[in-house]
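Batch manifest, entry 17 of 40.
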Amino acid sequence: MWKLVVGFVVIAGLALYLLTKGGDIDMSGEKHGSVKNHGFFCESLMHG
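Output type: structure tokens
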């Protein structure tokens, strides 16, 4: 059982390290209207 916990901690640490070194990665969640083409895509879905 302890090996699973150690393995999870190692993999989670590696993932966090890679995400922080990966460059411009936004981990703040959804942003409505931040992508310019996204609004057009949503409107085309709503209006058919």
